[in-house]
Design goal:
Layout (H helix, E strand, L loop, with lengths): L3 H11 L4 H5 L8 E2 L2 E2 L1 E2 L10 H14 L9 H21 L7 E4 L2 H16 L5 E5 L8 H10 L2 E5 L9 H7 L4 E7 L11 H10 L3 E5 L11 H4 L3 E5 L10 E5 L1 H6 L10 E4 L4 E3 L13 H17 L1 H20 L4 E4 L8 E6 L4 H10 L2 E2 L1 E3 L4 H6 L5 E5 L6 H17 L4
């Protein structure tokens, strides 16, 4: 009979990734930069692509490419089948109730702008409120500011504390009878903070507000089940989850999408057109005007297949271990301060170094072969909250290792040496 201890040990081993084997799947990682092996830690901005995704896109272009829908020739039928198979795969991946709830867009930014331009213009009136948090990406700030200018609605911002956690008591207080939409990040791209989105959704729904989740930084790294969350809308990007650039997803509950007007007009999104009026296609097609990024959808399906083959739980466990290891090693560096120490974090670490600008950190560590992101990370308000103009940011993916963290630490020590801090 297997003991509880043995069972837990077996479960732990099942979550261990064979990272060296996985790294072989990513051709771009096998190169030198400035004479040193590449260490890629810019994964919150975009991740690299496994060979299976590259091959899927190449095969589609070289063998199956044609425009989708309405074509009766063989290539169009094959392309349509591949495009719609990608929609089915996305539905399964996030556990949407209906394939019609999956809208293909260019990425998270376009998805949020679609909601602002459709749901927002249709439903918001002067005095209505949109509630966000202080650590949103600009893509979840600027579209709402534009919408408020157009409708007379008001943007309300829930504060975060000095660890980078949303102050939920304040968030709850700011919800009110005029709150029409809550739009929050699931994982902060600048801090790595994980927002308790199920609590957010429950609170918002009690006030009759709809909820949009920016899942750009969560969908590639943890299980996201839209039915379990009960979110109304959710957005994510393909390029952050091992897929191509230029493809993303807006999930929306079917009853909500049916009620939202089209965001763009043109071909594909119509059923009938006359000079007097147009009748729009059913969901999701009324939101997919023009020729879509068909090959991108094919590549996104391949990326989801790859993630599934590795195992989302194993990925999350591996990245959590890297986060713990990197946090411990970086905290030991004198003069280094981690910006964002939320109770629950994903695999993102932002940091500053006394007396050194973030751009100088990025330049010097790049010379050591280590790629990090530097700047405000399209999150200037949260930078202001923490009293910094910019940070250096390391973010982990399934192909990163503790050796990568060690290389980052050594590169930061080199920065200190250059600036005379050692």
């Amino acid at each position: 009979m297997t003991s509880v201890v043995e069972q837990k040990a077996t479960e732990a081993r099942s979550r261990q990734l064979d990272v060296e084997r996985l790294r072989a799947d990513f051709p771009v990682l096998h190169q030198s930069v400035h004479g040193r092996p590449l260490v890629y830690l810019d994964n919150a901005a975009s991740v690299h692509k496994p060979q299976s995704v590259i091959d899927a896109v190449g095969k589609f272009y070289s063998h199956d490419y044609a425009n989708v829908h309405r074509g009766v020739h063989a290539l169009s039928e094959r392309a349509t089948d591949a495009y719609e198979a990608a929609r089915d795969r996305v539905r399964e991946f996030i556990n949407a109730a209906d394939r019609r709830e999956i809208v293909f867009v260019r990425g998270t930014t376009e998805a949020i702008n679609l909601v602002a331009g459709s749901f927002g213009r249709q439903r918001l009136t002067p005095g209505d409120e949109i509630l966000i948090t202080a650590m949103e990406h600009h893509a979840n700030i600027v579209p709402w500011q534009l919408l408020c200018e157009q409708t007379g609605a008001r943007l309300v911002v829930a504060p975060v504390d000095d660890h980078g956690d949303v102050i939920m008591a304040e968030f709850s207080r700011l919800l009110g009878a005029r709150t029409r939409l809550v739009s929050v990040t699931h994982v902060s791209n600048a801090l790595g903070s994980v927002v308790p989105v199920r609590q957010v959704i429950d609170l918002a729904h009690r006030h009759g507000a709809r909820v949009l989740i920016d899942a750009a930084q969560s969908v590639p790294h943890m299980r996201v089940d839209v039915q379990a969350l009960d979110c109304d809308l959710l957005a994510f990007s393909g390029h952050k989850m091992y897929g191509p650039t230029g493809i993303g997803v807006l999930y929306g509950k079917a009853e909500l999408l049916r009620d939202m007007p089209p965001y763009q007009g043109g071909g594909e999104m119509i059923r009938q057109v006359s000079f007097e009026r147009s009748i729009y296609a059913d969901i999701p097609y009324k939101f997919e005007a023009g020729t879509q990024h068909i090959a991108g959808a094919v590549g996104l399906k391949a990326a989801i297949d790859y993630i599934a083959s590795v195992g989302m739980d194993a990925i999350a466990h591996h990245e959590a271990q890297l986060l713990d290891y990197a946090t411990s090693r970086l905290q030991a560096i004198s003069g280094l301060r981690i910006v964002g120490t939320a109770k629950e974090k994903a695999g993102i670490i932002s940091f500053v170094l006394d007396g050194v600008h973030a751009h100088d950190i990025g330049t010097i560590v790049d010379q050591q072969g280590v790629a990090v992101r530097v700047g405000h990370h399209c999150a200037m308000p949260i930078m202001k909250h923490f009293g910094v103009a910019a940070t250096a940011r390391a973010a982990f993916a399934l192909y990163n290792t503790e050796a990568d963290v060690d290389a980052l630490v050594a590169a930061v020590e080199k920065v200190k040496e250059v600036f005379g801090h050692v």
